[in-house]
Amino acid sequence: MKVKNQTQIQQREKELQEVNQALQTLKQKRSEVTESIRAQERAEVSRAEGLLEQLELEITKLKSRDAEKEDPVDFLQVKPPTLKLL
Predict the structure, then answer these.
(1) Cut 0.90: pTM above it
(2) Which end of the chain, N or C, is less packed with Cβ atoms under 10 Å?
(3) Res. 80: pLDDT tops 70
(4) First to last CA, the chain
(5) Following CA atoms 50, 52, 55, 61 in sequence, which dihedral angle do they give, to the nearest 10 degrees?
(6) Does the pLDDT value for residue 12 go beyond 60?
(7) Separation CA 27–CA 21 (nearest Å)
(8) Residue 29: pLDDT above 90?
(9) Residue 72 — very low, low, confident or very high, per pLDDT cuts 50/70/90?
(10) How is residue 86 annotated by DSSP?
(11) In Å, how far from its chain's centre is CA 35?
């Protein structure tokens, strides 16, 4: 009986060790996945910031180009043509 109990204890300890190893593997995989997600997030944030800078530059160019155009009031104040009567 004592040998049987000792064998059962050893079997349970082995099972517990396997569960602990599996748990450690899961924790490591979780850590790897978390880091991968964070790296992707950093890359996307960087990409978005670059796009934002491009948009801001384009807005600045468009505003500058718009400022160079005629004043809308000047455009509407066209002199009427003079008519000659025969």
Answers:
(1) no
(2) C
(3) no
(4) 136
(5) -80
(6) yes
(7) 10
(8) yes
(9) low
(10) -
(11) 14
